[in-house]
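Hello again, I could really use a second opinion on something today. My current little project is about how a certain protein chain folds up. You're getting the sequence in one-letter code plus the fold written as tokens. Here's the protein in full, and shout if anything looks odd to you:
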Amino acid sequence: MTVGISHLFGGRCALLLSITAGVAGIGCESEVTLHLLSGGVGASVAGAGGAEAGARGEAGAIGAGDAESVAGRDGGVPTLPCQKLGAEVCNGGDDDCNGGTDESCTHSVSWQVDPDGPALGHVTIATNFAQDCPTGSVLVGLRVGMGTRLDQVAAICEQIAVHEQGDAGTAFSFTLGSRFVAPTLPFSNFEPDKAKVVELACPDGELLAGVDGTTGGGPQYLTQRIRLSCAAPAVADGLLDYDRAKVDLVGPIECTGCTPSPTYNYGFTIREGHVASGLFGLDGAWIDLVGFRSSQARIVDR
């Protein structure tokens, strides 16, 4: 099987990866390591032809202020410094980074991340990235850089706090607190003059409920439009959720200098009893693929 991947490097070196009996032959001074991703195949790149793509992926994959742990380029899970969210509240996380969790709370939150769901874009041989909101926070939006295609993305997260309703300790609500933005994947060098950066975020007091998108641009099906659905927090059967009776639309943001299809061909809704908790995807010449992680967050006794 022969796979052409020169589009990842802006034509700086035309690479052909030939895979025969498990041996990879490279047509220039670069080294490509293939690895499996959730829903596709990724590659880490080093050497003369891959230096630009490698640096681009490294800068966005891991950095101070990211989640407590994110998937690295080669599938590892490095531990990152604690992200201070603010004063300690009841949410299952170490908000003030003092090594303790929910010290004065009678209830906490147990977080369980779901498997990655469907993503917007297309699978390529590119660098995988992940941006999970730190424990105790939820996804409320995206910082988006859009040229003729989606070129830059970062997670916008907000701290949550669980509150008991009444004295029985059986009814709860939760509210949103301080907001922060994870490190942003840097722009490619293909069209910096056309890219615009905006924060596509839910209104204050609301969290992400879903995402709609439009892909286009020929056989690559890259992202050309994104719109968010947002809603107020809710608790159902002890699980953090959102108010499904009233959902607000935010956006869209569209590509510059292109004409996207008038219809959305991608939709993702956070399922019942879950909250949005991060991003994952593939970072090549543009953002080739972006998906949205969700978690089941259950209120538990301490």
